[in-house]
């Protein structure tokens, strides 16, 4: 889905001649039905949605995840709240080693939101689901009065199946693990912020929103014993590394120089007083693997489009358990703290 | 959970001395973690929540459902948005014949909402989940700026397992089916409206919010071939019956006199110009069963606390496919239309 498609997409039918969401669209009656029939379903593609979808699964373990999305603005360079809602939940599933299968999608619409905007978001959702290989199977739409929302809020929940023998969890991080990242960091946050603040860069920074399940499959196909996977979204790389260090009670040491921060991201962050390590990513993952298997996993990552920029950024160490430390270019160290509050509100 | 508990419940810890939600609670950093650790988890009870929960399921079919909740006000006689969010999704699963197992819970908090209110809602969620026999397994919290929300919006998604041989779907409604209802109608909508409009009745009308999975189990245990189950929430009995009639292309005939509308509901509706058949219920179900098995199913319903007030209200007929008709006390008929928009916004 390109930006051009968003621009040109219009509602397939004039829904009772209203160009905008009205309270009646949330009533569970005829208008609700029309919204699903004439807007959501055509936008999603050829699918069926039911209140409660009945789905086949194999015996074994499933992964189950949920996220709400409140990103502002709803459209930004490289994506929209629709893509984000699919990729974010697909990625949460993938981070537990699961193959994502099914998604639910629930809209909270603010009265007065243009139906063309709702439609573009729904179309982005459908396209992202197709790209990620997941099926939208159940949905819900609520409408809140003008001034009690902000355009469109989304929730997606997802179900995947976890292959036998796969156990990926933050508790498994261990001294000696190599820490890998799949590519450049800070891109999503800066892309959203650039439109929000009206910043101009020499080249447009586009969100990295992307599904990561394929990359994870490729990594697991090496047979390596992947200990931890994490997509560093809200709170960025700093929050993810700190959470893992605390949960597993290991020390983490990263090499500052090895952190792949694009120049535009570094510039924007220094302009705005942000720490790029705390900026959200929406298409990157951190992986903790035994050092002996790191090269093999890195090679598999680099061979996949979503991991072309993969790097090793650090190591788990027995020293300073629960703490994340960066080794600077001059050979010194500094602590990377857990972010406290919110430097970039409503980034996802 | 009684109203008294709501009133007396306070936050377990003063979270950084702020009595209200701030943007930082949504940042994915330390403050987000504190909210989960010190507020959500103690409120929910002894559970574990992860970004992506890995769960055992048997082979076979699962049911998957989602709903967002935006009810206003968040607390009303007989319940709160917390109970509603559990029971609503549990009931969607039960309506496909599934045994509900797991729930996700996602909050969208408006900046400035009192943490004690968030805590009371979380406590109601935990208590309702325990009462319904489902586990809260994964969650998410987002914060939106003041004026872009309205206190607390919730989403719950749910997973259940569908027993072999059970196929319950609106397409299965067939001429000859008896139509049963599990009890009084219109209660939830009038309960919410009474606080919203400051209405006073002789007796307080309390929401009927309740989980229905136990009732459904008892009905299925009779061995009857239950064709359709539906909980008449938004749009009420009128919307549910019309949807089923259209989907299955059968005619539906209900006996007006047999509709169990309590006097308080009838009074409130006539005062406010509402049709009680369009008012939301949150603890009732409609069942379509072969006429020959109706008595047996009704007996099982009446023997269960959630179905004590069960009645037969109508029949599926070959005439007027797709249309719902009421037979009046005088022997005439009137059409029960699909509600168009929204007579009671934000009722669930």
UniProtKB/TrEMBL annotation, chains A, B:
Residue limits of the PurM-like C-terminal domain?
175-319
Q: Which CDD domains match?
A: HypE
Q: Which residues form the PurM-like N-terminal domain?
A: 51-162
This protein's superkingdom? Bacteria
| Name of the protein in its database record | Hydrogenase expression/formation protein HypE
A single BP term in Gene Ontology? protein maturation
Assigned protein family = Belongs to the HypE family.
Question: By its UniProt entry, which Gene3D superfamilies does this protein fall under?
Answer: PurM-like C-terminal domain (3.90.650.10), PurM-like, N-terminal domain (3.30.1330.10)
Pfam families from the xrefs?
Answer: AIRS, AIRS_C
InterPro entries for the chain: HypE, PurM-like_C_dom, PurM-like_C_sf, PurM-like_N, PurM-like_N_sf
